[in-house]
Amino acid sequence: MRSAKRSLLVLAGIGVASGFLSALFGVGGGLLVVPMLVILMGFTTREATATSLAAIGITALAGVISYAVLEDVDWGAAALVGFPALFGSLAGVQLQHRVTSRMLTRLFALFVAVVAVLLFFE
Amino acid sequence: MSTGTIILALVLGFGAGVLSGMFGVGGGILFVPTLVFVVGLGQLEAQSTSLAAIIPVVVFGAWQQHHAGNVRWRPALIVGVISVLGVYGGASLAISLDEDLLRKLFAAFLLVVAAQLVWSTRRP
Prior knowledge:
The complex is a heterodimer of chains A (122) and B (124).
Chain A: H1 2-25, H2 30-41, H3 45-70, H4 75-99, H5 102-120
Chain B: H1 3-23, H2 28-39, H3 43-67, H4 73-96, H5 99-120
Helix pairs in contact in B: 1-2, 2-3
């Protein structure tokens, strides 16, 4: 019983934090949810990734509704990047099993850092 | 939007999907810069639009993972439903901030993501 209560509190905490991060930056929040489920709840990485996707579906929907009520959402642009991304992610998951390496991940990290710098000076 | 912009947005959307599938990061960190640099949206509108773009990707991903038997639905629903409380706070804060400051905070967030990626490659 006590451990069920603890689980509920931990999950609630992860939920509030990920919802805040997601809406603040327009991201899914998986970056927070996946490691938290692994570290605090003892999920395997596979379970955590899958469970986080399901949770983010609700989070992103709530985020879009909040923003649509309070501000603008460019639906055309959303469809323009979102639908090709759906097919891209299928290809990406296939590639992951074959080519993802430490080197490639570091290159991607460098790319993300460069984008960060460009945005900073935009 | 010009035809060139549309094509570039489609290509970058696909690319963002490939990278998110490969590295297990959400599409959002790539959607937002794409919407700012290519489509020319402001930071706030890019973020709200990114959230809308994420939905088809995660719904499809969750459906696939459900069929693979990997989703633990009770925790997923608890996290997802309670996240709505945080969403309200995050969206209110984002809207209240100056857009230039919001973009700089987002850039700082991307640096944290880059650091987390490098950290994930450390030898066990």
